Amino acid sequence: MFCFKKQGSRAGTHPKDGWGVKGHGFRKIFLVYILFFFLAPIVYAQDGRLFLTDEDQFNYASFLLKQEHYSAAAREFGRVIEEFPSSRYIPDSQYMTAESYLKEGRYRDAVREFTQFTVNFPDNKFAADAVVKKEMLDVKIKESLGFPAPLKGINHETKDFKIKAAQILLFKEDSYEDVEKEIVRLKEGGINTIIVRVFHNRGDRFHPFVTPRVRAGVYFNTKHAPVVEDMLGNIIKMAHRHNLKIFAWMTTRYADYGIEDKTDLRCKAYDLAKNMVVQCKGLDLFNDEAVSHLEKIYKDLAKCDIDGILFQDDLYLRHTEGFGQYANALYLMGTGNTLKPSLFYSGIYRNNSSYIVRHYTPAFWEWASWKNKRLLTVAKRLMKTVRDVNPKVVFTINLMYESVSNPAYALAWLSQSLDDAVGTGFDYYAIMAYHLQMQDELKKGQYYVERLIERMTKEAVERVGSPSRVIMKVQTVDWSTRKPLPDREVSELLKKISFVDNVSLAVVPYRIDFPFEIMNQFKD
Description:
This protein is α/β, with parallel strands linked by helices. It folds into 2 domains: about 25-145, Tetratricopeptide repeat domain (Serine Threonine Protein Phosphatase 5, Tetratricopeptide repeat, Alpha Horseshoe); about 165-260 and about 285-315 and about 370-520, Glycosidases (TIM Barrel), CATH 3.20.20.80. The chain is about 40% helix and about 15% strand. The protein contains 17 helices and 14 strands.
């Protein structure tokens, strides 16, 4: 449900404490670079699977620069230096960092990087060019009285609603009356929003108080999907009776209820082992019939008196997903190119039972970005469908933690981009900062991951532009064992996140034994 497990090759790097090029520390990096220049800069995960290489990271940053995403490009060139101190791409990365700052209008930052570049790499092919550009910028800065171009900042005057939410996978109560008593307890504990799951997958547990009509479907009335029970209407009345907002937590790609046998609507992926395109889980969001099916379901959801919708975390495409005739037709129409796996993956090889992609090509990043834009286009269509019926509904997109901590990984592996999502205009951005999951996947300890989540919170707020529109989601159970996490552990992490004033919070999932009164310590 809300727990995302990676499969196959893991295309990401572990975040470091540094988040960009730091001129004052670069000499140390440069010494390491000299010592290890001829070593292959490939980083392996604990299980032997390949992360992104330095070439992948450099190609991703270069793609951002080409797309005129200058701030993001500077950040990602910086990651080449921070993450791969032995890389042959370090000189070009520092030069391109300076170039990105120059194009963005951040002249002082550009001067600093051009200066450091000429010191570190005086014989580089770009050294003379760097000197000329530095001198030109010195004049520009002097003429403008030394004031650099303003950076994008946080709008502290925003009147956005700060969310303090419980995300409810499963109510434990036996009756609607007891559910309402629990809703009152949540309200008294400081919760102002409940996010209620309104879809049901085969094998999920049913709420004790419902009488299920089908084994999979939705919890609201619609003619376009099987209905488990019209539970949502009752929960909405209870929530509003006690001045709580209610968001419907709804699936997208996996909403194939009732049409599971329509194979032409299935997602298509490239099988690295078989060297062929095969069917995969979920709807083919490049097929307009599949998107229209979703629009019909969401239109009926909009008829409910909900305050918002949280898109389930299935609005993503893995690095081998997004092929097939419909994707190919759209890609050809939009780019003039056809979808050929051989153009995207370089050096596919077998590692035990898995097949690994050694490098992603520059064409791969174009395709990954194109897939991300398609997913966001589908989201916009669903938002329009809902708002045509119910204009007051606000929308939240679920984003994996890597969309903040490791954007190259997020785009490569998930076709997700926080920067592009912000440009799409969602009302809220939910970052799945599930600390125990992160510890397991990053092979890092609790202290490291908590520090990382603190930095992620600050960076997400900066990139979104409003603290309250960032929802930091914290897990309350161990996904592997399903056992509750210690209340103090969850509470302390919430406190650390809340050092960023006015950031929104959500605990996931709702637990009947969780002390929600701790949410009262965080101001609305």
